[in-house]
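Researcher: Watch the backbone:
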Amino acid sequence: MQVTHSHLYGLKHRGLVECLGHFVESNTAAAFLKMQQAAADDGINIQICSAYRDFDKQQSIWNAKASGKRVLLNKESQPVSIESLSSSSLIDLILIWSAIPGMSRHHWGTDIDVFDANEISRHDLRLISQEYQANGPCFQLSQWLDSYAQQYGFYRPYQEALSGVSPEPWHLSYFPISNDYINHYDTESIKAVIKNSSILHKDAILKRIDALVNEYVFRVAPIPAP
């Protein structure tokens, strides 16, 4: 079948511009730079550590984890051995922190991972929840985002009990664009994409694809009320 809206699955990009060394959807970039300046006025240096990723990049991340070449973490951010895991259990473990290729919001260019460069370097950043909690280097940033991100069109799609993906306080989505994107996301299209891919354990993924899309793509925190 023909894949519609191929940019939603990382196969093509749409309207991306360079922003601080990363590629971001153009409206998202403009809004981020305004938010960054406002945060700077309050002594917070918001920087992007991850933005747009295409399908091939996400597939390389997935396959490295699925093959044991990259460390897998559990919900407590502790390393886990994969030697005795079934394909289904391995998929569930990877999905705690990494999306199935074609099912990542980072394909859209509207979603970014951020940190406070005044408090921690990109090299030292691990992107774990403790860094954004009390006594963590990005706690002040997290509190600032709670208060002001919505004013610039950003929110956190991955929140406790509201999303299939584990809470990610560093992950922001530009909802004026991403909300439209999720409404056009199509399960049949992602099935076709995965069938034609080199994703490890793709047969096991395809057996569960409807449930996986519902849980890890469609089940996100609602966008903020106007």
Summary: Strands lie at 16-19, 22-25, 46-50, 72-73, 79-80, 111-116, 154-155, 171-174. Helices lie at 26-41, 55-66, 87-94, 139-148, 175-184, 187-195, 202-207, 209-218. The chain has a mean pLDDT of 96.
